Amino acid sequence: MHSQQVMPLPNIDSKKTPVIHKILVVLAMMTVMGGSLIGLMTYINLGYSDTFFNDWLMSFLLAAVTVMPAGFILMALLTHIVEKWLPNTNEKKRNIIVGLFMAITMESAMALSTAINNIGFSSQTALFNHWLEALLAALPLGLTLMIITSLTIKPKIERFLKS
């Protein structure tokens, strides 16, 4: 018998999560959370019509390329700041603080981008009124989603993204 020489495989860290999986998880979160909030905001701005899905999609895409990427950066920055300022506070309390701030900030920004997409700049009064109505209508949902996310999903997502 003749022995075959086995070439060692390069050292591959099998525990490293592929970047595409990380991107897909972030996109899924953006779609579920942002999509539902922007859907509600679009409904508040325009009501339901034959063009609702298109109106929602255009508002979602505008927020997806502007508000949401800024939100992920802001969340990482804010998490770091809160950890530094409140090092002796337990992680759940810090996550609630970050969640509340993020909900209010992101809701305001998404309501503005949705109102801009749906109403435009022709009347500052109309834009402000639609922004405020959408913000106030969606804020309870946004706060609920953000608190749930901050307490349950955020720690897991952070570990997943670091893997």
From TrEMBL:
Keyword Transmembrane in annotation: yes
InterPro entries associated with the record: DUF2798
Regions annotated as coiled coil: none
Entry keywords, A to Z: Membrane, Transmembrane, Transmembrane helix
Domain of life: Bacteria
Keyword rRNA-binding listed: no
Membrane spanning residue stretches: 23-44, 56-78, 98-119, 131-153
Name the UniProt record assigns to this protein: DUF2798 domain-containing protein
Organism in which the protein naturally occurs: Shewanella metallivivens
